[in-house]
Amino acid sequence: MKKIKSIGTKITFSMIFIVLVTGFATISAVQITLSKTLTVALKEKGLSVCRNLAASSLEPILVEDRLELRGLLEKHKEGITDLSYAFITDKQDNIITHTFSEGFPLHLLWANKINLGQTNSVRLLDTEEGVIHDFAVPIMVDTQMVGTARVGISQKSMKAAISNITVVFIIIILLIIGVGVLMSFGLTRVIVKPIKRLHHGTEIIGNGDLDHRIEITTGDEIGQLADSFNKMVSDLKQNIGMLEEDEAKYRALFEYSPISLWEEDLSQTKRYMDGLRDKGVKDFRKYFDEHPEEISPCISMAKILDVNESTLKLYEADRKENFLGSLRQIRTEKSHRILIEMVIDLAEGKPAEVECAYRTLTGREITVLVKATIPPGYEKTWSKVFISVLDLTERHRMRQSLELAMEVQQSLLPKADPKVKGVDIAGKSIYCDETGGDYYDYLNLDQDKEDKIGVVVGDVSDHGLPSALLMATARSSLRQRSSLPGSIATIVSDLNRQLVKDVEASGRFMTLFYLTIDPKNRILQWVRAGHDPAIFYDPTTDTFEELRGSGIVLGVDENWEYQANEKSDLVKDQIILLGTDGIWEARNSKGEMFGKEPIYTIISRNANLSAKSILNTIIEALTRFQKNSPAEDDVTMVVIKIRGEEIKGPRTQD
Question: What is the pLDDT of residue 151?
Fold first, then answer.
């Protein structure tokens, strides 16, 4: 069946349909209402006729005047329209007289029998003439029924009246349809003509003539639509000009960007990934692990539309044509596997950024960071994807150098905690970068066979590679100087003079806490060079104190003379903690500082544990406090616990 395309035809048929539906619904409603009204009127009429007949028949029945009764029936039949029959019975239901010319139908006698006490009875009888309303009224003398008057009235007139009204309504509907058709033709000419002009104008504009304007001056909604369309075309022309200008700027930025840029069409790759998803693949990584042979074909589906000059320079190519024809030379099997990760990230809506190795056209291997970006409007097709390639070769080499520097610096720290009679010692350094400026060391001072040991904790300003180099220099100088005779104050003073020359005007400096322990003689000596005081805990009194002392940071004033401090009468289980400010100044995600109170609590509650256990407990507490917050400074700590093998006798009171 051919579809109706003309608006005028659609309006005409719509109007005809509406009129027909409305008209026939109206006819049905009128027929139902009229039928009910006429039925009620017919019933009232029939009862009235039957009652009159019963009243008129009383005296003739009593005197048995059949002739008079016959005359009454004939009179009613002639005066009443649609009276089908009338008859009178006596009290034994015997027929006295009737209006039937061909004999009385006996079945009619019992079709509507009136019972004692009823004033009337009405029945609908289905006959050959149609539906008959049969009315029965008793003929009464006082309370005695002496007979029955019966009247039958047909619905012919009522049906005829309803049919006539229906015909009138149908004629009216047809007239309305005719007028509606004429009006629809006129209306469609008014509407369709400007619409055709609008359609013609859109075809011209669609063919590229953005200077064409649609002239419709009807002043109605169609005219407003034409005005809006003309404005849209004007704006479109302006936007196209802006887009062309932006495209020219983009091409300039693309072509002369210092970063390697690729413009690619990944629409086939997108369809391939969507096909896998339609087949029920949910984990793309698992799929490609199980089907590695599909990685290369999937990557090869990408179509390279353009590359910029920086790309040619990066891959050591002379022309774009040569480069695009030599892509197999720059890719490796390993790069295919890494690039599929980027495609998977794009398919999962994640940032697509991978680091992989490529080869230049001269065979030189480079490490690059590849990042894919889908511009707005291309998310569903991937028909345009921008790929940026950043050369990480030098950065990769620097990272390798940093890793080597970290290994070297880690080798400068003590490989194990020392075993000293009368003392339990544990130390640890945690750097926030690959290298750092924190430092701790154990110095063997047992030159006189007295089991003395030196413990050093230092902190170079800032962190990173420069701080690590200064730390290594300080360590070497301190180890060399501590092997020679002299007090710890002299050793630190000599170290300071050397560092002043090393740092010169760099602005760097170093804090240091140098502690010596003589378990046999129960003596602590220390020099504090601008470093945080050591924490000293006495479990016998459950008290803390700080091992303070005067002294500026190292590397500032070469003439500064440092002074030694001393504490005697050590007893068993006393604990000393040396640390850098990276411990108590560490902050969590809320900006709160760890502080020293948690350290005091841990030492007090775990004083019966080993130095190693106490150190690890503090580190664990610090890690829980920081959670996922990145460390901003190095952390170094040494815990010393007096074991007491060399301590005899009670502790003397100060």
Answer: 92
Say what the pLDDT of residue 5 is.
58
Distance between CA atoms of 307 and 1, rounded to whole angstroms?
55
Distance CA 3, CA 578 (A): 93
Q: Where are the beta strands (DSSP E) in 509-634?
A: 510-518, 523-529, 534-538, 543-547, 565-568, 575-579
Strands 423-430 and 438-444: unpaired
Distance CA(519)–CA(430), nearest Å, equals 29
- The residues, any chain, with a CB within 8 Å of residue 267's CB and separated by 6 or more, are 381, 382, 383
Decide: residue 497, CB within 10 A, 0-12 exposed, 13-18 middle, 19+ buried: middle
Q: Which residues of the chain have pLDDT under 70?
A: 1-8, 189-192, 218-219, 240-252, 333, 394-411, 433-436, 445-450, 463-465, 505, 644-654
> Could you count the other beta carbons within 10 Å of the beta carbon of residue 310?
19
Phi (first) and psi of residue 182, to 5 degrees: -60, -45
Report residue 235 as tokens. 């704006």
Which phi and psi (to 5°) does residue 635 adopt? -125, 125
Q: What is the CA radius of gyration of the chain?
A: 57
Over 472-530, what HEC string results? HHHHHHHHHHHCCCCCHHHHHHHHHHHHHHHHCCCCCCEEEEEEEEECCCCEEEEEEEE
pLDDT at 617: 96
**Where does 277-384 show beta strands of DSSP type E?**
303-307, 352-359, 365-373
Q: Which residues contact 553 (CB under 8 A, 6 or more apart)?
A: 509, 510, 511, 529, 530
Rounded to 10 degrees, the C-alpha dihedral 486/488/490/493 comes to: 150
Which residues make beta-bridge pairs with 429? 636
Place of tokens 């697509």: 352
pLDDT score at 649: 36
In terms of Cα–Cα distance, which of 153, 171, 151, 174 is closest to 163? 171
CA distance 439 to 470: 10
> In the β-sheet with 534-538, what is the strand arrangement from edge to edge?
423-430, 635-642, 575-579, 534-538, 543-547
pLDDT at site 436: 66
Answer for the pair 452, 516: CB distance below 8 angstroms, yes or no: yes
Which residues are CB-neighbours of 308 under 8 A, at least 6 positions away? 254, 255, 256, 257, 260, 261
Query: Rounded to whole angstroms, how far apart are CA atoms 321 and 98?
Result: 119
Q: What is the pLDDT of residue 6?
A: 66
**Per-residue pLDDT at 267:** 93
CA angle centred on 41, ends 38 and 43, rounded to 5°? 110
Neighbouring CB atoms inside 10 A of 372's CB total 21
Helices 267-278 + 333-347 axis angle, to 10: 70
Give me the pLDDT at residue 575, please. Answer: 96
Residues 536, 540: Cα–Cα separation, whole Å: 12
Token pair for residue 145? Answer: 């029924």
Phi, psi torsion values for 459, nearest 5 degrees: -145, 110
Neighbours of 422 (CB within 10 A): 19
Q: What are the structure tokens assigned to 592, written together?
A: 């709160």
CA distance 542 to 607: 10
Q: How far is CA 375 from CA 390, 403, 522, in A?
A: 19, 38, 74
Instruction: Give residue 1's pLDDT.
Output: 47
List the one residue out of 616, 606, 605 whose CA is nearest residue 430: 616
Q: What contacts 422, CB < 8 A, 6 or more positions away?
A: 451, 519, 520, 642, 643, 644, 645, 646, 647
pTM over 0.70: no
